[in-house]
Amino acid sequence: MNKITIREERCKGCAYCVLACKRELIRIDPERINNLGYNPAVFSNGEACTGCALCAEICPEVLIEVFRERGKVALKWQNAE
Ligand code: SF4
Ligand code: SF4
Residues 8, 42: contact at Cβ < 8 Å? Predict the structure, then answer.
């Protein structure tokens, strides 16, 4: 199963990743506030993630990592630092 992780403690809540995900798997959590004072983005852990990495590419803070499953191998995609 494909999935992403978000470093929520550094998220600034800009919601670019929310707009980027065509599967609507990411949302801004209005119930939580991180140490920076923002409502962070969270992943729904849905099985619909395609591993397209659009969310990771658009994040200006480089907080999203994408894990793609191909057979038994989970590939870790990292945005350029
Ligand atoms: S990798 Fe693609 S499908 Fe998965 S959460 Fe990111 S934008 Fe959505
Ligand atoms: S694009 Fe990055 S900084 Fe903006 S809401 Fe998503 S995870 Fe947070």
Answer: yes
